[in-house]
What we know:
Strand content: under 5%
Oligomer: single chain
Low-confidence stretches: none
Distance between the termini: 50 Å
Structural class: mainly alpha
Shape: rod-shaped
Order of helices and strands: HHHH
Amino acid sequence: LINSQNAHQNNLLAQQTDQHQSSINAQKEHQQREVLAKNRQEWINDVRKIIAQVISDSQNAVLNMHKENEIRKITHLKIFNAQTEDNIAPAPFPDTVQVLHKIDFQITYLDLLLSKDNPLDRAIYDNLKDLNTTLNSIYQLYCNHGVHISTSDLNDLIKTKLKTYHNTTSQLISKTKDLLKAEWIKVKELQ
């Protein structure tokens, strides 16, 4: 009888130990999933914020190029007509250059955030590189032709580049939305 009671108590103790260990394991798994979900949500927010910033900065760069080019034309004309004391032309597009450097940094940062193995991530990165290439080609047109031709002739040169810029921006937004949605679904599955 005593052996039977001891065996029964040992069985109960073993069951309680198993239940306790299962409970601990479930809590650990739940905590790990919460941390993963939180980290993934932070990643989503970071990608969203940086993509929005790249698009906003690129729009500012295009506007700055036009504005700074008009200022350069006026200064160039004054120098040409010897109406300034120093006869030194202003640096070409200082605000634009600063924004273009910021965009380069943001694209590099996003490249480090995005997966090299995920086709959607790579498509987004390719759009970012295309956007940067287009911005730089617009910048080169302004630098090379800006003060030498009329604004309307310059606009004709830039028109196709601007169309490419807008198409690339639209594709970038669309692909980013797809990526963010897919990642959001993963976060919901973790919770």
